[in-house]
Amino acid sequence: MGRWQSQACNLETGNSEGKGILLLSHQRLALFSRRINLGNSTRNLQIDDFQLNTDIRAASREQYDQHLKQREATLEAIKRQRLERQEEEEKAAIMKMRKEAIHIATGIKKYKPQVIKPSDMPLTQAQTPKFSDRFRARLHSQ
Description:
single chain; mainly alpha; 0% strand
């Protein structure tokens, strides 16, 4: 603690000589305090336009939020269209299956009558097959 502060504490405790010490400490403070000399300024004292970084950040964040909302809305619309298209395809498939399940009788087909003509070839003469080896052995030996 500084010397003048300890003297101020003595004043608070009820010391009679503390009053004089307190005045001295204020005088010392007045000597050491510096005055700000403004002088005659050539600058305008009007405030120029300025933007705080928080304002700029808030505006860019608002644009970003709008972009996100727009993107989310488009994705939701695409998803909804996809679901509607899928439901329509399912309904069409069910209708097709139901239509195919109903049996519709068809008439008998009519073809041209076939004309049978006799063959010009002579009948086949039957021959005994040669399965046995004994007949072949005789033929080869001759």
